[in-house]
Specification:
The protein contains seven helices and seven strands; from the N terminus they run αβαβααβββαβαβα. It is α+β, with helices and mostly antiparallel strands. Bound molecules: flavin mononucleotide. The site of flavin mononucleotide (FMN) has 12 residues, from α4 and β6.
Length: 175
Amino acid sequence: MEFKTLIDERRSVRKYTEGIDHEALAGILREAQRAPSWKNQQTARCYAVETPEILEDLRAAALPSFNRNSSAHAALIVTTYVKDVVGFGDGAPVNEIGNGWGAYDLGLHDAYLILAAKNAGYDTLIMGIRDADVIREKLGIPRSEEIMSVIAVGKSGEAPSLRPRKAMEEVVRFF
Ligand SMILES: Cc1cc2nc3c(=O)[nH]c(=O)nc-3n(C[C@H](O)[C@H](O)[C@H](O)COP(=O)(O)O)c2cc1C
């Protein structure tokens, strides 16, 4: 897909007709790995859930009802980052951001992921409202990783309109 079209057409989708096949999912995750990261340390981690029984169990236990409904029929990707690596040197934060840099790198990774999904013909919903403790226990995610988002991926069953963006003057200053 042409890049501008990709940017123009991506939306958060809250209704799915079906999930995604394994090869397409693996392809999207490979493209997400191409995102830049601090010193190329690549601390983003993904837990891709595609097995129907595991999906239903996770959705029921770890998502509030609105996100459970929005992500029905979609696959789920839990994204995490390994803590205390990015932005750290000799065991101490190199500046005031600390583990915020790990979160920053994961955000870049996830941005690549949702655009790669769109380019491959799938839509996504990033969900920050989820129960991290339940996810950690169900998927066996180590404590060394911070659980951030759960991303639904699948075939869209709706055509959401563009959510408004703030006026550029409100968010950008030119010097
Ligand atoms: C970090 C993050 C967390 C989000 N969490 C949720 C969520 O829990 N549930 C939901 O329905 N949407 C969630 N969203 C989607 C936003 O509401 C959506 O991106 C925003 O309204 C802009 O719409 P658009 O993605 O269609 O451009 C989240 C988005 C981000 C980036």
